[in-house]
Write the structure tokens for this entry.
Amino acid sequence: MMDMKNKYGSWCLVAGAGEGLGEAFAFAMAERGIDIILVDQKKNRLESIANRLGSTFGIRTKMIHLDLASEESVRILMETIIETSCRLIVYNAAFSVVQKFMDNDPADLDRYVRVNMQTPLQLIHFFCDFHSGKHGEKKGIILMSSLAGSWGTQLLAPYGATKAFNHILAESLYHELKADGFEVMACIAGATNTPGYMASNPRGGKISIPLMRPEKVVEASLHSLGNRPFVIPGFRNRLVYFFLSRVLPRRTSLRIMNRSVGQVYRDRL
């Protein structure tokens, strides 16, 4: 197991830590002896996870009960980052609703932009500005993206578009900031057994991929951080990505993906 505490310091901030992948990231970091800044709008979940992390691993935790769509969210997060000199952040938080594009109201669309793009973009900018010039220290940034951001699919338009944004952002910063000691990576996750995914009520289809465990996605991410600009956890997910992005024409891949999503969520069409 990589000595992440020695590499990135004592604290890690996990945004969207209340369940699923965010919770799995928090436990994986705590297992490595790293203190955790837990960020989520589910206060009861934060308290439960903080208690379990403390009793199981003996680490320190800080809880930030926060709606990441709020205008003051970046300021609040940065105050804690400055206070702890946190050098590792995981932005797992995301807004997602599986529905037709025109079923979104303006508030939904604004929330996609704020939670999935605006807050992480500004947070990373402030984070990098705070740590700039500290060339002897490594700083890590993990952005959660999704295979849904690789192809435009029905019922997932705003979500997929924002996840594509995070993928491109991470790839760009991986190269641009490497010389300054920043290690940036996007995790391109496929279908994962999280409460959020299961709440979308997927029905299955002819082109179905077994759900990955959150812990497997997290370990693939932590193993790859610093070595590559993005990782696709899971052999089957990598195979699907290679086949649809490298072998087939994009028009064919789009048809396959849209048919698959239509089968999984046929009740929404």
About this structure: The CA atoms of residues 119 and 166 lie 11 Å apart.
